[in-house]
Amino acid sequence: MGTMGFIGLRYMGRFGVCPSRFGSLTLGSRGIPRRAVSALVFRAHGDPAEVLRLEELELPALGETEVKVRMLAAPINPADINMVQGSYAILPSLPAVGGNEGVAEVEEVGAKVDRLKRGDWVVPSDLGSGTWRTVAVCAETSLQRIPNRLPLAMAATLSVNPCTALRMLHDFIPLNPGDFLIQNGANSGVGQSVIQIAASMGVKTINIVRKRPELEALIAQLKALGADHVFTEEDLRKPALNDVFKDAEPRLALNCVGGKATVDMLRHLVNGGTMVTYGGMSRKPVTVPTSALIFRNLNIRGFWVTQWKKDNAHDPSRFDAMLEELAALCRTGRLVSPALSEYPLKDYREALDNAMQPYSSRKQLLVM
Amino acid sequence: MGTMGFIGLRYMGRFGVCPSRFGSLTLGSRGIPRRAVSALVFRAHGDPAEVLRLEELELPALGETEVKVRMLAAPINPADINMVQGSYAILPSLPAVGGNEGVAEVEEVGAKVDRLKRGDWVVPSDLGSGTWRTVAVCAETSLQRIPNRLPLAMAATLSVNPCTALRMLHDFIPLNPGDFLIQNGANSGVGQSVIQIAASMGVKTINIVRKRPELEALIAQLKALGADHVFTEEDLRKPALNDVFKDAEPRLALNCVGGKATVDMLRHLVNGGTMVTYGGMSRKPVTVPTSALIFRNLNIRGFWVTQWKKDNAHDPSRFDAMLEELAALCRTGRLVSPALSEYPLKDYREALDNAMQPYSSRKQLLVM
Fold this sequence. Notes:
By secondary structure, chain A is an alpha/beta fold. Chain A is built from twelve helices and 19 strands. In chain A, the strands form four sheets. In chain A, strands 4, 7, 8, 9, 10, 18 and 19 form a seven-stranded mixed beta sheet that branches. A six-stranded parallel beta sheet of chain A has the order 13-12-11-14-15-17, sandwiched between helices. In chain A, strands 3-2-6 form a three-stranded antiparallel beta sheet.
């Protein structure tokens, strides 16, 4: 998840397909439907505008270890679109419900559910949950409680991008106040979270964006979030910029682009520095000069928040601690959600259309 | 050092130039020469056959903290050639004496030298030493003692390639008996050391070489050293090979090639595995699919034994321990030097010519 862009399928063989979760998708009639569910279903991969349809599904009976939830809001992330198109590395079995992130309220719990109760706010803890729907029945273990005094838009978008940003800032190199990091795709959902969380840590950010219409407005927006420097990819190749980096050599680089823009970013990383790749918007691979590995001892890593969640599934307290840390930043105004446009579920076509526009720094949110 | 191939100069700005060491190169007449030194000098970068000349130099007086050594033997490594050509990332100031590795015997020590004594065998501890000469005066701190009951050829070639191999096997991931690693350029000096040291640890090796004349003889040679599997780059792309990797997923990959061959090797690395780059024979960069970083959590690193030596210069006991570990493997026959051709210093042209032949698995050794 996160700002993936279009990941090649070359390495898919090692993953296979994830089951459609967050309540089973029972499309046939199986006994008497207890309640109708509206959901954005795709029965084939392709252009989201063509393959996604709003359908009425039936809701399965609530099992002993299951929870019935009402979706409150769910964003449209780039990875969601790639998953519908069939270009994401992890694909659900079809038919499937779209969407992988969102916030829901617990309406009813099975007899053996003990960690969740009616009224709790929850987010899915894995991919393939199908959040673009009104109601779901799902395993207690597939849900993670989230502090429910957050603004709805924040709660709906907290568990992927801000979690990705937080983990990349905490888990790769120790960052101290005054240290610098550099990131590309700085206006992405993750990028905006990185700027704000880094600022809360006293870590300074050098932010790279693509040249675009209304660049000045974007620069002002990112600086308002706490960005120390904002440059375009073209700026990064100008010798004049070397002065900036003389006293601000970044120790960490965060990459969601790939290709030439990433090579240019690597050039400014301190010897011994680490670059973490979490997306590939350019659809180009990460190319590292041999000399940068040998003589500059760069460390090239990757991060996928879904894997972090899987690896920590045995200890939900780690997930709790992460969400609580982010919620605390939200409550004190140090972390705000990206600019959002809200749409009722029935207006999903317009929302998808806007989500697929280039240079968009706004996130589209479906509100159920 | 090691099997570098031709490293681009793009990242050179961060290193600058290393001084000519291992005795100063005094080309003018400064007082009465105490003794003549024969040395292979280059006064400009270019084709080694053209720019290298055997010259008589004068030897400076021995300082209090200096040591006078007589060179016994020095190899011609790919990095030495690149340094003469001017294509290596670290270049000496000119004029300079060629050669960076070799074994010497201590003949005389200054009044304040306490770590070395007459008769000790020593190797240079940094680049730019200029080992292609008969005699040198150099700082005690620029020398490292080496066990002197080793065969001469082994002693002369122990401090770069076998040290590179040993460190890459020890310092990146824990390797247990039965684990697999994969390496390309497996017939290089480092590659042959990796095979032998890994075998002594019970670690199995999958070795990739380029298709070449007399491939069968090379495969037999590497298997005799302890290689478990030897494949060509073309073999690596055949689906049939997937069966081999089913029970032998390598956790570590060692790369001295770059380009397509390296992408092919990465495909076989286990999820979460590490690739260490120590050379770039293809002159192409290391290209990593974005998905391999994100979804397979590969870790892309680099290693340069010269940097390891610099980083550990404050504690010569670490260098001692490394050389002792290698010497022990030599004494028990578990580590042998690569096939060598020996030349007197005056026949350096023939030695250089042979060192620059493609597909050579023999090392050329100048014996003084």
